[in-house]
Amino acid sequence: MLAIAWAPLYAHxxxxxxxxxxxxxxxxxxxxxxxxxVPEEAFFRPAPPPDEExxxxxxxxxxxRLLAGQLTRHEERATxxxxxxxxxxxxxxxxxxxxxxxxxxxxxxxxxxxxGGTHHAFRNRGEGFCxxxxxxxxxxxxxxxxxxxxxxxxxxxxxxxQGNGTAAIFEQEPRVFTFSMHGARNYPHRKETSDxxxxxPDGTDDATYLALLRATLPRLLDEQQPDFVFYLSxxxxxxxxxxxxxxxxxxxxxxxxxxxxxxxxxxxxxxxVCMGGGYSPRIADIVNAHAATFRIAxxxxx
Length: 302
Fold this sequence. Notes:
InterPro entries: HDAC_classIV, HDACs, His_deacetylse_dom, His_deacetylse_dom_sf, Ureohydrolase_dom_sf
GO molecular function: histone deacetylase activity; hydrolase activity
Radius of gyration: 17 Å
Protein name: Histone deacetylase
Organism: Hymenobacter rigui
Family: Belongs to the histone deacetylase family.
Distance between the termini: 5 Å
CATH topology: Arginase, Chain A
Number of domains: 1
């Protein structure tokens, strides 16, 4: 059975102009249950982790100022969120969810976080709706505990935006390979350097996108020999997305997820999936695209 991290506080409390893109965190679990994709017991409520887990990848000065609400106006504006104690609980809980997903995937093969994929968070700052980097913290946790058997980690970031914070955090860490396939003209305007970046031109369609992914990911698995995979499955690659410039159809997005997850399953690689971005004007387009990821995982791992 799948393990899925979800907590209702993911969408609260935020200003009205932030509410729409966050609705998916409420609607997606409802749809998965209504369709019978997973039973109710597949969901678990994550909790904020100990500070030491966050401080593996974030500087103490930034983290403590974040907790105390002492970010400068410029720093707060860069995150896209107004500060509040509830926001900190939300962000630390999301990180705790991905951390617990990593532990569960080691035994169950796969775990998914309804939220997560906060790949724009750097060691010393937040950006682009990301305050703390959940996949980076979970990868660092696995590597810090040799008894877990994880010596090399592959991060597959297929959100339409480059995983700039994740790339910077692991720039000097040879045990983590960062792969980002993203829109060349999308945010962030100043890109970092991942171990492998594949910037895509505006209007990239299903056939072009999938051919490039199929030519790349098997080679990375052969070359890097990872023991664990983190997958960021943002659906902002859709042609309907108002913040993306690519032209994938829902079927193309589904085939993307199926390809990544089938490879992990075939190679018996534990994988944690985080949902990442999705900003189509119709909330149904976002939720349906994310739900397809869970259907694929349920079919593969049961």
